[in-house]
Amino acid sequence: MNNLSSEELTPKPNTNNILRAVLVLVVLIAGCLAYMLFESKETSANQQEVINTKVMELAETRVKLDSITTQLEAQIEEVEKLGGDVSELQKAKAALEKDKSELTKRYATLENIKENYADKIKNYESILIAKEAELVQLRDENSSLTNENSTLKNEKNGLTKSVEEARAQNKEVSSINKILTEKVTRAAALRAESIKIIGITEKGKEFEDDRYKSKKLGKIKIAVQLNRNDLTEKGKKTVLIRILDPDGYTLFDTDLGSGNFEYNGQDLAFTIRRDMTFDNENLHAEFYFDRGAPYRPGKYTVEVFTEGFKIGTGGFEVK
């Protein structure tokens, strides 16, 4: 049986008013009966005592019914909160209210009231006891569900943490792989051992000089000596060559094949584009450039690029 708080057991104002009304009604009925018995010569003092006793029993019965009503309402409220089935309790409450109504009306048979309602009270009490057991089970089930939810929440948090750790590890591995890939790529890049600039006259004669005369210089040959590299993939390579004038500007002529490319996030201009074949055996490459106009005096810089890397730098001077 529930251990109901004093607040739950305290009769509500409506219940008290009904109880008082019933008691007043019962007293009036008892008075009428007493008067009738008094008028009757066959009424004895013993019968009067019996009536008074029955009146008290009627009041006691009503109090018990009200108490059971309070307990039923408390159980209905708790079962609803716990998500249980209150249909049987609602039916019991409806039947109880009906019995209470009949109790008020059937005042003429005071002698049988307590006996008739004793079994019903016992039945209601049995329902309360049975429902109390169900209520205990519901509490246990809700407690189990709460524990299961807590366990699932902990498992979810654990899985979330594991996923986050795995992502962090994957990110770290990806970062390491990227670094290693970049290192391998750099290691596999071609490198120029030397870059020489050789002058060519208008008649096609090659010559080398520390300082070239502008009038004598027709074309230039860019001779690149490559380093051997077993990591470099063999095959066709596209070579971009930048020739910078004394002011640092790129010699640029679209008719000669000049264009732009990206290097280290910068947009750069190149002077000529040429192709070469790398087999890691023949490590010498030559590229020719005919500007078609005189070179002005000063120092010129030659930069050679392939596959996203600058493989070497050379230069020449014009007087």
List the helices and strands and how they pair.
Layout: H1 6-9, H2 13-39, H3 45-81, H4 87-105, H5 110-188, E1 192-200, E2 206-207, E3 211-212, E4 219-226, E5 235-244, E6 259-263, E7 266-270, E8 272-278, E9 284-289, E10 298-306, E11 309-318
Parallel strand pairs: 3-11
Antiparallel strand pairs: 1-2, 1-4, 4-9, 5-8, 5-10, 6-7, 10-11
Helix pairs in contact: 2-3, 3-4, 3-5, 4-5
Count the E strands.
11
Name the poorly predicted regions.
1-12, 180-184
Gross morphology: rod-shaped
Helix share bin: 40-55%
For the sheet with most strands, the description reads:
5 strands, mixed
Please give the order of strands in the largest beta sheet: 3-11-10-5-8
Q: Averaged pLDDT, please?
A: 78
How do the SSEs run, as a string of H and E?
Answer: HHHHHEEEEEEEEEEE
Kindly name the structural category.
alpha+beta
Helix count, DSSP H or I runs of 4 or more residues: 5
N→C terminal distance: 115 Å
Query: What radius of gyration results from the CA coordinates?
Result: 55 Å
- Taken as a percent bin, the fraction of beta residues is 15-25%
Number of structurally distinct domains:
2
